[in-house]
Amino acid sequence: MRLGAEAAERYTMLLYNEPMSKHTTWRVGGPAAHYFQPADLADLADFLRSLPADEPILWLGLGSNLLVRDGGFKGTVIALQGRLDEIEALDDGVLRVGAGAPCALVARQAARAGLCGAAFLAGIPGTMGGALAMNAGAFGGETWQRVRAVETIDRHGRVRRRGPEDFQVDYRSVRGPEGEWFVACELVLTPGDAEAERAEIQRLLRWRNRSQPIGEASAGSTFRNPPGDHAARLIEAAGLKGFRLGGAQVSEKHANFIINTGDATAEQIERLIEYVQQLVAERFGVELVPEVHIVGEPA
Predict the structure, then answer these.
(1) CATH of domain 5-79
(2) What pLDDT score does 13 carry?
(3) CATH no. of 231-295
(4) Is 251 a catalytic residue?
(5) pTM, full prediction
(6) Does position 212 have pLDDT exceeding 80, yes or no?
């Protein structure tokens, strides 16, 4: 469903048929029918109220952890990169963070404020909204371990404050009230040594740079770790490290990363994901579950 001319005049940051390859870290993906960047929370609420009730919505942060198929997304993408990205230290060691704030920036800002416990966020290549939606984690830490409260918005533009008790949080999985999306959260941190926290962030980032294909086009970790094991170990043991399908390749540096070597299509990446699942299941009887969110239509 195409939004009318009135919407185009009313919302200056509303684009039509926007290539998602420009906005995903895999650098693939067909066009989004509508691509909207809100100016602020009030603009977002107004826009959501204007959408048809059956309009599909895809929330976008930095474009990691996402595969948009080559046929594109036949709905509205709401892009929060550079929007709703406020980070504010409140009383008692609490940090209020907008959903559009990059997780790595949250870690650094927390350290500058002398707050400890958010260093693990430096290893998450997305925004706070995405981290909340999937309970993202890195370096042994998980997002919801630090959440005191969240703010959500629904299709009617209503903003609510909710506590963790309103959500079922598991490993890389969060289920909450239907039809609500995260716009902010409050993280409980511990006042401490700012210099030591900054040093810890740098140590974790050095480790990540040594062990992961940073700088190459990937979406982050492709699969969840199965209970008691690591997806990367299983993929490597199946002989798939470096395996290539067209322009899509299992990283030679870290087997749980699939990279776009330069000319991959979304279809090739999806087929490689499926092949890795198939071979690991045949060899080890383990069903790898994608951590990556796959949306859209085939070419």
Answers:
(1) 3.30.43.10
(2) 87
(3) 3.90.78.10
(4) no
(5) 0.93
(6) yes
